[in-house]
Amino acid sequence: MTSARELRIAVVGAGASGMMALIKLREAGFDDVTIYEKAETLGGTWRDNRYPGVTCDVPSHGYRYSFAPNPEWSHVCAPGPEILDYLKDVAAKHDVERSVRYGEEVVRADYRDGKWEVETTSGPQGQFDAVLTATGVLHHPTYPDIPGREDFEGEAFHTSRWKDGLELEGKRVGVIGTGSTATQITGALAGKVAHYSLFQRTAQWIAPLPQGPIPEEQKALFREKPELLQSEYERISHENNSKFAAAIVGANPRAYEKLVEVCKEHLETKVRDPELRAKLTPDYAVGCKRLILSENFYDAIQHPDAELVTEPIERIEAKGIRTKDGRLHELDVLVYATGFNTHQLMRPMRVRGQDGRTLDEVWAEGNRGYLAVTVPGFPNWFMIGGPNSPIGNFSWLLTAERQFGYALRLIEKLRDGNLTEIVPKKQAAERFNEEVRAALPGTVWATGCKSWYIDKHGNIASWPFTFEKFEADMKEPRWDDFEMA
Ligand code: N01
Predict the structure, then answer these.
(1) Ligand 1 pocket residue status of 181, Cβ below 6 Å
(2) Among the three residues 336, 356, 388, which one is the final residue of a domain in this structure?
(3) Which domain holds residue 230?
(4) How many structural domains compose the chain?
(5) How far apart are CA 150 and CA 172, in angstroms?
(6) pLDDT tens-digit series, residues 464-485
(7) CB 315 less than 6 A from any atom of ligand 1
(8) Which portions of the chain are predicted below pLDDT 70?
């Protein structure tokens, strides 16, 4: 009998998923693991998104690592900086940073005979037995294709590139976009700056979500009785997974009807002016775009110093934004809350697989893999948040832990079985993608709207099944679906 071999593993990205992967790989006995991180600090999305009002938009007690319950969350939806502190705290407890190489963007990975040759911006890093990407989904900023962007004389930036220390009091601030990010910024800034203009191209459905502080007695109780904290986690997860997530994929019509009712009622009770209400009423199904959760947006946009601009934008000029009706909206600060290219995933990294083809070539018509974690032709390559990963379905940390758990079983097989490579069969991926194609028309994402779930080919990038199916699929690989050598 041969003994298990040592594996050298590269993890790409030191965000919430990459950190978790490192911690759990070490726990499983893998000591030679390096995280390559292009930035200078950890935290991924919570490091990059520092705009006013940034908070988690799922209740915080449902957003935590399973191995690091947190009784200290200050609010029902914790502010971004607090989540970043939580990640830093977990990283410190697990001595994560000794394995992170900061300022190293992975630019190339080539597969040859059971090894990945990895190169970063500072040069070749040698050979690895496995690569695990944890590059996130929402991190390539999209800027609007509006003429005159370079003419603007004030400060202008994307929400994920917020200018730290910028004083906004007394300024006229304009925000383009009405997604979750712009909604949170509106709640934080409307009424606090000299004038606030929100440029809306498409109205959004918004469900109310209480965001208030968690009382000290509650925290003390959670501290004393971890089982209460756990049952709060389970309650939130159950609400989300069996109601919201099931509703949007067509598996719980009653919960969907309720969701529609809640959103409509929220709009009707909060916005009494029929003209404004009409402007804020979407013309597509609830949940088709990623549902927004906010308890303060409607109040904020009705502040006397706030304005919802629905006239289309003509161009950006030196002094502000000119709308098609000829009006110039004068601004000191212009914020692009225009979202992300969510289909780029780990690229522009160039990844060349088994038969010499690159991921760019294989994904030319859209990203496709097997169960969102592996891709045929790319052995020993594992993804957290790969094609058709649940995005916006379940808590991201829960999704990431489950996908990692699945990848770990494959990595352990490589080690314990003394294998050189493990790769999903083409037929298995085809079967999965066929199931995805068959399920998508039953989801609300396919009911006719433009959203970041849909790529330029019209493919919908999310997981169109229930949480139960996700749990079952991630529990244990179907070994017959893999080629092993
Ligand atoms: O981006 P978005 P986001 N002219 O893509 C508009 C997560 N998130 O950063 O709908 C005018 O949703 C565009 O308009 P339209 C969450 O999953 C999580 O807000 O295309 N407008 C849209 O209104 C979320 O879904 C948290 O017509 C233009 C907006 O820009 C995801 O991130 C917090 C335009 C983009 O909205 C992305 O949210 C915040 C143009 N040329 C975000 N181009 C949490 O708390 C684009 N738009 C976890």
Answers:
(1) yes
(2) 336
(3) 149-212+222-336
(4) 2
(5) 19
(6) 999 999 999 999 999 999 999 9
(7) no
(8) 1-4
